[in-house]
Amino acid sequence: MLTVAALYRFVDLPDADALRDPVEALCRDLGITGTLLLAREGINGTVAGEMDAVTQLLDALRSGPLFGGRLRDLDVKLSSAEAAPFGRLKVRVKPEIVTFDGGATHPAFCPARPVAPEAWNALLDTPGLLLIDTRNRFEVALGSFPGAVDPGTRRFSEFRAYVDGLDPAAHPKVAMFCTGGIRCEKAGAYMRSRGFAEVHTLEGGILRYLETVPETENRWTGDCFVFDGRIALGPALVERPDHAPETLR
Questions:
Q1: Pairwise CA distance, residues 131 & 135, whole Å
Q2: Which among 27, 178, 184, 224 is annotated as catalytic?
Q3: Where along the chain do the CATH 3.30.70.100 domains lie?
Q4: By mean pLDDT, which of 79-83, 168-172, 192-196, 218-222 is the weakest?
Q5: Residues 21-27: contacts with CB within 8 Å, 24+ apart?
Q6: Is the terminal CB of the chain with fewer CB neighbours within 10 Å at N or C?
Q7: Which GO BP terms apply (predicted)?
Q8: Mean pLDDT over each residue of the chain, to the nearest integer
Q9: Residue 158: strand, helix, or coil
Q10: Architecture of domain 113-247 in CATH?
Q11: Structure confidence by residue, pLDDT tens digits, 45-57
Q12: Distances (CA, A) of 155 to 98, 152, 161, 183, 226
């Protein structure tokens, strides 16, 4: 059984280009596969390997000399895979760690309010709440929270146009969610910058909700698409291998 780590952190990394080679070397030494993206705004990716190797990588990122403590608050969601979910390792430098608007929106400027998975169900019961699934339509097709709006996007960069068509005055309270939390941080910040007064995001995303909330209390319906060979996960982050890749996207 392999350990899979989905990780991200918005943090200033002006030395992203210089970090690429050492990060790749560290991963290769540990036998890690997957994808890591580096940008001036932070780090994002999903990697897999033996449990000890993944633990060593996370320790090095959080407290090793490479990042000098800048990733000590790295957000990590752990799950498992019976077979290797990635065929190789890719470490790349990009303009953004999640493509949205060329880096113009940074979560630190207009942050949304994160809501812990344990408190998410109570928020869903709020009268007049606009609940938005920020993921792409092929992801939404596998599962979502009941009552969530599907913006119908094919890629995350299209989400801005959806937001621009909404009236902030008509939606005093908004909640949004995504797979691991990173897209919500960007989307939530953008909505706040567009005048939406109260914007909440599911802390840690769907993955942390499925991991944390007992199945008897879980309001998620269907499965959660993941961007690796496992295709989808269910409650308690159990693999759902019955989705054919060719039917998605």
A1: 12
A2: 178
A3: 2-93
A4: 79-83
A5: 22/66, 23/66, 23/91, 24/89, 24/91, 26/57, 26/60, 26/66, 27/57, 27/89, 27/91
A6: N
A7: tRNA modification
A8: 92
A9: helix
A10: 3-Layer(aba) Sandwich (3.40)
A11: 999 999 999 999 9
A12: 11, 9, 11, 11, 15
pLDDT at 144 over 70: yes
- pLDDT for 241 equals 64
Supply 26's token pair: 């560290």
Q: How many residues does the chain have?
A: 249
Question: Cα separation of 13 and 19, whole Å?
Answer: 9
The topology (CATH level 3) of 2-93 is: Alpha-Beta Plaits (3.30.70)
Phi, psi for 36 (deg, rounded to 5)? -125, 130
Least confident range of 34-43, 79-88, 119-128, 169-178: 79-88
